Amino acid sequence: MIQFLYYILFILCLAYGLYFFITGFFGFKNINKKLLKKHKSKNKFAVLIASRNEEDVIGHLVKSLLDQNYPKDLYDVYVIPNNCTDETEKVAKKAGAKIIKCTVPTKSKGEVLKFTFEKLSKSKDIDAYVIFDADNVVHPDFLSKMNDALCEGYKVAQGFRDSKNPGDNWISGSYSIFYWIQNFFFSKARMQMGGSASINGTGFMIKKEIIDEYGFNTYTLTEDVEFTAQCALRGIKVMFVEDAITYDEQPTEFKASWKQRKRWSMGNIQCFRRYNKDLFRTYSKTGFIPCLDMLLSFMAPYIQILTTLLTVILILFKVFNIELYDVFSYMYAYGLLFFFITYLANVILNIFVIKYNKKSVKDILPGILLFTLFMLTWIPINFICMFKKDLTWEPIKHKRGMGIDEIK
Q1: Global pTM?
Q2: Which residues, given as ranges, of the chain have pLDDT below 50?
């Protein structure tokens, strides 16, 4: 009976992993093909930056936005200071941004965005919103590429999330690799297979008519993936715009990383609890793959914990000489050799995404070698979040002020 239960859980985890493994290979389909055609600049953007105590970085972002290769009369840059105790508003205004004062109590980025969307809802000349985090800097062609996406008929789009500081240490390097893997093996792969990317926190675009029709009503700690799930339920595809690049500051301290990833895991768990039935029901009725993608993505914390428990069970079975006949137990029988091969495969994957993104392997070597450790530290995070009722949204302090010309 115990072996039978083990096999059921093993097959579940194996199927989950194979789904993302197989669909990830679509990233290699027409690997150098551009997904968008060039169009004439015509859409008016409202660029929104929710900011809380970001005086060290906000000026660099505003400058990179005002230097876009896009007609200046076709976009406005708005900074929305909230809960600030520093000079964020003053620095942003001096850099050239327009200020929207947040006049309602807010506890999260999602609430700030909701307030801002409502504030701008009566502006008839806005075609789409573009959202950034204050620590970003933006490639000069970002708005031009988002204009192309709008002209192609997409109503929601996610840009390419790159890093300002991948070579700082193993933590920032691991974050960078994590996003590069997600860019290629999820977002790019989904576009190549005719599916939908996922909104990824920053550097994304939403057509104004979507907000006007549905509002921006998010309830979890991860408003980005929650809104992606809402798009999936409404049959809206998210376009991945690979050439619309945002450079993001990655944490360099483990404490900050732990806090941020705990919020992500709790947000995924909240989203699963809130949307699992609707996503499953909609996928069953329509076959719309983005619903399945989001459902499986929200299951990630559960699957990681389940895989960890299966590994512990497997060790106990070996100790008590209980026979098993699945592939994993055969591989595990090779002990350290199996784990070394798994680790080596991970290193090769890391090197591939680094080379694909034309980055220096040497500069990011600590991240390459310790990425497996970075992922393993998610296990206790998920265990904690599974038994915690809720978390408070906490900002991550950003200090790395860099101009676009300083990024390698």
Answers
A1: 0.92
A2: none
